Amino acid sequence: MVCQLFWVVVLLAITRVGEAKQNAGSLCNPSDLKGLIDFKAGIHVDTSGRLAKWVGHRCCYWEGIRCDNQTGRVTEIRLAGFISTNDFLFQSEMRGLLSPSITLLSTVGVIDLGGLVGLTGTIPPAIGSRLPKLRKLYLYGNMLSGPVPDSIGKLSKLEELHLHENRLSGSLPSSLGNLRNLNQLLLYSNQFTGLIPDSFTNLTNLMHLDLHGNALTGQLPVKIGEMQAMEKLDLSNNLLEGNIPLSLTNLNSISELYLDGNHLEGAIPFPSSSGQMSALGFLRLNDNHLTGRIPQNFGYLVSLQRVSLANNKLEGAIPSSLGSLSALTELYLNANLLSGQIPKSISQLSRLILLNISHNLIQGPLPSEFSSLENLQTLDFSFNRLKLVSFPKWLSEMPSLSKIYLAGCGIRGKIPEFLRATPSPIQELDLSANHLTGSLPAWLGSLTQLYSLNLSRNFLVSGIPDSVTNLQHLGVLDLNSNRLTGPISKVFEIGNAFPDGSLTYIDLSNNNFSGGVEQLGIGAQTGMQYLNLSHNFLIGRVPSSIGRLKSLQTLDLSYNKFGSKIPEALANVSSLERLKLQKNQFTGNIPVEFLKLKKLLELDLSDNFLVGEIPMGKPLSEFPESSYSGNKGLCGKPLAPCNS
Ligand SMILES: *[C@@H]1O[C@H](CO)[C@@H](O)[C@H](O)[C@H]1NC(C)=O
Ligand SMILES: *[C@@H]1O[C@H](CO)[C@@H](O)[C@H](O)[C@H]1NC(C)=O
Ligand SMILES: *[C@@H]1O[C@H](CO)[C@@H](O)[C@H](O)[C@H]1NC(C)=O
Ligand SMILES: *[C@@H]1O[C@H](CO)[C@@H](O)[C@H](O)[C@H]1NC(C)=O
Ligand SMILES: *[C@@H]1O[C@H](CO)[C@@H](O)[C@H](O)[C@H]1NC(C)=O
Ligand SMILES: *[C@@H]1O[C@H](CO)[C@@H](O)[C@H](O)[C@H]1NC(C)=O
Ligand SMILES: *[C@@H]1O[C@H](CO)[C@@H](O)[C@H](O)[C@H]1NC(C)=O
């Protein structure tokens, strides 16, 4: 007791010393006090417990509040949701309405209410006229709605405006262009519409503009290049159209430029000469409608590290100047109309880690100089006009290559045995849609790092080798559309042997597999999302252990000879979205428990021997007749009513 009293005294003494040091008025300015009390009153949940300690009148000592030590007026409110101290990290939450009284704090320079998750309401319309000293406004990561008020353009001292990740809407006020001191304008992941105001080009001190993930329309301001301080510009995932303005080449400080996921068209206009945009390290122009050639001048962008031009309509040859981009680590040119051969100069990109040129019109042969790309880990040449005939042996000798995609490359013959012992163990292999013949080799089981294997759409004839049970990292196995035979049990033994394994996707469809599945350990592969066994000769009962595949979204057992009852345990797979059991010999009723499958989007039970009433209710009654047709004994909605 005495001891406790001692500590109280000490604490009081410390507090007093603190106050003296601050030398501020011990009472709060009445206007500041009202602003803060109203703010607190708007919040009904504060998981951080900070506001609960806001009692009395001396607001300068409240947690999160700072005052000017001369005037005693509030200068900063710092109540961000993410709390980080030397000892702990903590995501807190405040739920409630952002009080417009916050604008009573007329001397405040910093408002940080970012990442509180649950703040609702609007940005107070008067904010611009009431808070002339505001330098930093952080309201990101909440549920604020409504527009950005026009008055915001009066905050002439504003340097940082972070309003991203809210539900703000309307068009961007042109007055934002008056904020000459603005360095950072982050408005991404909201619902803004309309144009990017031309006035933005007056924001010549802006270093970071991020508007991605809105619904902005129209063209980019022609004079965008006047925003000369810009280092990072992200306008991705909007609805922007028209050409990329030539003036972009004036952005001499730009290091990150993201215009992907829009409707931009025309040619890539930059750079027009050497020295332009020389700091550009990260460039994404993918998923637009860009046309024309990749400019030969691209080689002037000497700082480029990661580039994506994928999913456009770029044509012509890949310029050999790309070979001078010595910092390049990732290059995505996939899904364009690029033609000609791959220039040998690409083999000079000694830092290259990933190269995707798939889905173009590139012709062979592949330059064997490529083998000097010693850091290349991932290579995708799928679906071009390469006509390789055989798998290039030098590829299997590249020191870092472990993810190889050569689908639709015209490769013939057997699966080459030299893939068995590559310098870097194979993790991903896609040789689908080729002309491979022969068997699935037993040595596949020695690829112990294998995560994904796609050999679909070939002419492989054999059973599944026992050794596959060694593939403990296997996640994706696609063997569809071959002529594979025998039982499929080995594949499920992978899941049994490694119950926490990564198996998520199995497609064995359209082969000649046979035998039953009742004895398989189906159910241990709890991460499985996709299972397709359709178009085979599988027979017998489907075991109820299948109900343990808790993550399953797609199950296709169609076009087999499965019989007996549909396991009602499937009703426990609540993630199921697609269930296809048509063209089998299932008997009995449709389990009434299937009414629990609320996520089911596609159902096909047609052409079986099912009987009885279709369980009434969502989602079963809502599927079309064709989901149930060809079962002579079924009745009830959507089929004809049952005669009872
Ligand atoms: C007020 O704060 C400033 C800056 O932190 C400091 O230099 C000054 O000494 C303080 N004045 C008083 C009276 O404590
Ligand atoms: C940029 O600022 C100048 C000077 O204040 C002004 O005259 C001009 O209209 C502004 N430009 C735009 C596009 O708003
Ligand atoms: C390469 O691009 C294609 C087509 O756009 C895509 O489907 C594929 O996943 C990419 N490959 C790699 C290895 O990223
Ligand atoms: C395997 O390759 C085929 C054709 O190349 C493709 O359609 C399929 O999506 C691939 N499978 C997986 C699991 O990616
Ligand atoms: C299963 O595989 C068959 C044949 O390869 C294919 O036609 C079908 O679309 C696949 N089912 C699902 C649901 O993806
Ligand atoms: C696969 O099944 C088809 C249809 O029954 C048959 O014509 C073909 O000979 C079988 N192929 C093999 C390799 O078993
Ligand atoms: C579904 O899961 C529950 C709880 O996990 C279990 O008791 C029940 O037996 C399962 N139903 C079927 C039909 O397997």
Provide a count of the helices: 4
Distance between the termini: 82 Å
Helix content: under 10%
Class inferred from helices and paired strands: mainly beta
* Average pLDDT figure: 93
Number of strands: 47
Strand composition percent: 15-25%
What gross morphology would you assign? globular
Question: Quaternary arrangement of the chains shown?
Answer: single chain
What small molecules accompany the polymer chains? 2-acetamido-2-deoxy-beta-D-glucopyranose
Which value, in Å, is the CA radius of gyration?
32 Å
Q: Largest sheet, described in full?
A: 23 strands, mixed
Low-confidence stretches: 1-24
Task: Kindly describe this structure.
This protein has a 23-stranded mixed beta sheet, with no helix packed on it. The protein starts with a helix and ends in a 9-residue tail after the last strand. A hairpin with a 4-residue loop joins strand 4 (82-84) and strand 5 (89-91). Helices cover 7% and strands 24% of the residues. The protein is mainly beta. It contains 4 helices and 47 strands. Residues 1-24 have low confidence and may be disordered. The structure holds 2-acetamido-2-deoxy-beta-D-glucopyranose (7 copies). Keywords: Leucine-rich repeat, Membrane, Repeat, Signal, Transmembrane, Transmembrane helix. It holds the Pfam family LRR_1. It comes from Hevea brasiliensis. Residues 1-20 form the signal peptide. This is Leucine-rich repeat-containing N-terminal plant-type domain-containing protein.
